[in-house]
Each structure stands twice: as C-alpha cells, then as structure tokens.
Amino acid sequence: TRLVNRQILLIGLIALAAFGVLLAVLLLTSGYFIRSILLPVDEITEKATKIANGSYGVQIQKKYNDEIGLLADTINEMSIKINQNEKTQTEFISSLSHELRTPLTAITGWSETLLNSDDLQGDTRRGMKIIHREAGRLTDMVLELLDFTRIQDGRMTLNMELADIRS
After folding, report:
1. How far is CA 165 from CA 5, 51, 161, in A?
2. Residues in Cβ contact with 60 at an 8 Å cutoff, skipping those fewer than 6 apart
3. Of the candidates 61, 27, 25, 57, which has an alpha carbon nearest to the alpha carbon of residue 43?
4. Which among 2, 51, 84, 99 has the fewest CB atoms less than 10 Å away?
5. How many CA atoms lie within 13 A of 133 on its CB side?
6. Distance between CA atoms of 101 and 90, rounded to whole angstroms?
7. Cα–Cα distance for residue pair 96/143, rounded to 1 Å
C-alpha cells in the first residue's frame, strides 16, 4: 500500500502543481487584459473630464483599433465639434453686438437731439425720455455682451488685486 499511497501523493502533488501553474497563468493574463482595458479607459475619462470642464479641442491619442479606439475617435470628433460650435457662437454674438450698436447709437443720438429741442411737450416728451432711457439700457446690455465674448475668447483679461474695503 505504500507504493499506492506514494503514487496517490505524487498524482495529488502533480495535480496541485498543475493547478498552481494554471492559476498563475490565469492571474497574469487577466491582469494584462484588465490593464489593457482600464488604462485606456482612465485616459479617456481624464480627457473627457477636461473637455467637460471647457478645454474644447483636447484630443485623445488613439492606441487601439477596437472599441476603445472607436470611443476615442468619437470623443475626439465631439471635442472638435464643440470647439467649432463655441467659436461660431462667440463670433455670432460678437457680430450681433456690433450690428446692434449702430441702430442704438442712432436712436440714442436722435432722442437726445429731440429732447434738447423745445418743440416736445407732454406725452411726447415723456415718451422720448422712455425711448432714450431704454436705448441706453440696451446699449449697456450690448456692451456687456461684447465684454463677455471678449473674456470668453481671451481678448480681455481681468486684472484682479486685493483691495482694502474699509479704506
């Protein structure tokens, strides 16, 4: 029976060694596959977060021609389109603001001219004052809109400094 016990022990040890080798191979290959998925997904997540925070035009390097590569291509295309739309919007607002300033300047100028004349009386004078005041308000809004677009596209920067409020 010693011979049988020795053979059973040998077979058990061989099976245990084979199981250990199989387990090691399984852990190594699964670690490789997990890294090959998680690392690119982490990079894509990082770049997508930058895009979400306003860094439009950021591109992800495509390293694979699989689903992850397709995802990177899609996010890159989205980033480019958002960047283009942002520029188009800024240009439109800037152009619109400039176009609105011309008629508002004429309305403000003529309302001032008419208000300075003695020909206006009663309701007409009151109406002209309203027109003048609202044209001024619209002009201020247009100027704020222009400043906003200048800040957005970097043509104007804010210089911030500490100030003593009490003084």
Report:
1. 93, 38, 12
2. 43, 44, 47, 72, 75, 76
3. 61
4. 2
5. 6
6. 17
7. 11
CA 80 vs. chain centroid, Å, equals: 11
User: Span 73-87, mean pLDDT?
Assistant: 87
| Pairwise CA distance, residues 156 & 90, whole Å | 14
Question: Alpha helices of 53-167 — where are they, by DSSP H?
Answer: 67-116, 122-152
Tokens of 95: 């152009």
Output the six-digit token pair for 47: 């770049």
Find out whether 156 and 150 touch, Cβ atoms under 8 Å. Answer: yes
pTM over 0.70: no
CA triplet 78, 57, 39: central angle to 5 degrees? 75
